[in-house]
Amino acid sequence: MESLSNRKKVLEQKPMTFGEKIYLPSIAKGLAITFKHIFKKRETIFYPEQERPVSENWRGLHSLKRDEQGRERCTACGLCALACPAEAITMTAAERKKGEEGLYREEKYAAVYEINMLRCIFCGLCEEACPKEAIYLDGPFLEADYLRKDFIFGKDKLVEEPLKS
Amino acid sequence: MELAFVIEKVVLVTVIFLITLGIAAYSTLAERKIAGFIQGRVGPHRAGPSGMFQPLADGGKMFFKEEIIPAESNPWLFIAGPCLALLTASIGSAVIPWGQDLVIGDRVIQLQVADINVGILYIFGIVSLGVYGIMIGGWASNNKYSLMGAIRAASQNISYEIAMGLSLIALLMVTQTLSLRGIAEQQAGFWQNGWFSWNVFCQPLGFLIFLVCSFAECNRTPFDLPESENELVAGYHTEYSGFKLGAFLFSEYINMFVASAVMSTLYFGGYNFPFMNHLGLSDNVVTILGVVFLFAKIFFFIFFFMWIRWTIPRFRYDQLMNLGWKVLIPLSIANIVLTGIWITVKDLM
Fold first, then answer.
1. How many domains does chain B contain in total?
2. Which of A99, A135, B176, B231 is the least buried, fewest Cβ under 10 Å from its Cβ?
3. Which residues of chain A have pLDDT under 70?
4. What angle do CA B284, B286, B290 make, to 5 degrees?
């Protein structure tokens, strides 16, 4: 068949010549290549001290956002939990009481909001599903821990710091 | 037997033993460092300045790990395997001449533990004993993979010992002596009677065969089939843990050190270095410089072992056997014939 891309390469399987059969020239060539690599630049990034730069739309740990007045945006509609393909998100809704208008933006809010970070696949579908722009995956890496229960992040870890005024 | 002689030998044995262990320990670090450098990484660098304490950390880890003896194994042989491997690895260095005689006052100290007149045979015997540790350990584990590794080790060592011995015969035809000190003394300086005095220049083919065979004898890549981790799950030491595993790994590095020392002594002039007799230095200084040069050669060979490891992939088992039986043994026999003709012609002239 004629190659359309003109990049087709036919390999010829010639019997090896004597020089190729004794392998020593090719071993010497290989040794030279590996020796050259000893003096090349190291690619290592010394992680805890140094971090690899990540792209702008990189997805890290989740954070629950506040609006410009410092009120939680999340209304516990459950769309993120519904969108989540890994079933990592769960929440309990509650009604806003009188006097809590400064804390929650709308009448309904998430009393409990938990993400199981061991289930989460960091796909970002919760971010896309959220109608209130309340959840974003803009945090750092997920750090290691010892116990499974410590990977279930509640509101204490997820909600943004309150506004400083 | 005077007391001073005994003390001298005990000190020498202790020093050599400690140096051997130290070099073996730091070979593990060097291996990981060189692997890192060749692959564009830095290797271990957290323990101490640029990872200098890594061998201590590894050793400590090995000591504190749980020692598991499989229920279905033969416990005595299971323990005997690594002991034997470590023992045979560490007694090999006894006949290697580390330098010329050191003269202190009117005492002549020989920098060699035992100058026996069958030095090469001794080394050869020890090397062939080395496989028993692996075989016994692999068999006693009562595990298919371990047994496979042990069988591979045994057949590989037996096959490559033949080619190694034959390449040594050609060397012995040139040197006319089995004593390692005698062989080292014959290679004095660098240039003698219009030709290089080091044996590698009159036995290049023999050296090549010896080099390839010592890779196989030390179970190093490209011939590390007994412990190939991706086909045999680490081969003969699959079931080992804790310090018994450490003993197996350590004996491999000691073997590498001894093999490097033997190669330097047999083919690269041992403690001799160029212009050693023309610098006008006192004898003791030349001796100490000779020891330094011998260790430089040994370190080069250890580096070469590691350099090869990260360059050439592992051989397939049939390729290994083909290389051993169909290439190296005929080549070494041809080398003997050529050496014989060369010696005869040289004598006639």
1. 1
2. A99
3. 1, 165
4. 115
Neighbours of A1 (CB within 10 A): 4
3 state SS for B84-127? HHHHHHHHHHHHCCCCCCEEECCEEECCCCCCCCCHHHHHHHHH
Per-residue model confidence as pLDDT tens digits over A29-47: 999 999 998 888 888 888 8
**Domain ranges (residues) in chain A:** 63-158
What type of residue sits at position B95?
V
Q: Cα B80 to the chain's mean position, in Å?
A: 22
- Report the CATH fold assignment for A63-158: Alpha-Beta Plaits (3.30.70)
Order of strands across the sheet that contains A89-95: A89-95, A108-116, A152-153
Residues on chain B touching A43 (C-beta within 8 angstroms): 40-41
- Per DSSP, the residues of B239-275 read T--HHHHHHHHHHHHHHHHHHHHHHHHHHS-TT--TT
pLDDT, residue B334, reads: 92
Q: Could you tell me if residue B334 is inside a domain? A: yes
User: Taking an 8 Å Cβ-Cβ cutoff, which residues of chain A contact chain B?
Assistant: 27, 30-31, 33-35, 37-38, 40-44
Q: Which residues face A110 on adjacent strands?
A: A93
Q: Which residues of B touch A38 (CB under 8 A)?
A: 34, 37-38
User: What's the pLDDT score for residue B134?
Assistant: 85
- C-beta of residue B27 within 8 angstroms of C-beta of residue B253: yes
Interface contact B319, partner A, CB < 8 A: no
DSSP bridge partners of A165: none
How high is the pLDDT of residue B226?
73
**CB contact at 8 A, B322 and B316:** no
Residue B304, pLDDT score: 92
Compute the 3-state secondary structure of chain A and give helix, strand, coil in percent, each to the nearest 5: 20, 15, 60
Residue A13 to residue B208: CA distance in whole angstroms: 29
Q: Summarize pLDDT for B1-28 with one digit per residue, the tens.
A: 688 888 888 888 898 889 888 898 898 8
What's the residue count for chain A? 165
Q: Does residue B54 belong to any structural domain of this protein?
A: no
Which residues constitute the domain of residue B142?
65-348
Per residue in B157-188, pLDDT (tens digit) is 888 888 888 988 888 888 888 888 888 888 87
Cα-based angle B165, B18, B55 (whole degrees, multiple of 5): 100
**What is the per-residue pLDDT for A125?**
92
Chains A, B: CB pairs < 8 Å: 33
